[in-house]
Amino acid sequence: MDKRSKVIDLDNDTPISEAPYADLHKVGFFDYKEAKLTIVWGEEISRNKQIIILRKLYPKLKELSTANIYEIVQKNKQEWQFATMGWGNAVDLANEAKILGLNIIVEELVLS
To answer: Where are the alpha helices (DSSP H) in the chain?
Structure first.
């Protein structure tokens, strides 16, 4: 078989067929779930280091001063719900946090 026959013609103006709306809806393409993220403070890593890692993972926490974050941490000794975001982003953040030694729980946020 000739290698040239395997080349895809990118200049071809033939449109690619789109999936029907019903099929996309059935697989959940249009579902946008919100999630809340809660950090459970671990004992293996110091709380200060956990806060630094969390601020790197979730840059919106940089809007709060470090002193404000420490106040929140003192009030919520065991855990802290620190963010809400889309489900996919929340799962990605939690997986990255797990690699770095943090324990973040992702829960579906029920919108009423």
So the answer is: 21-26, 47-57, 66-75, 87-99
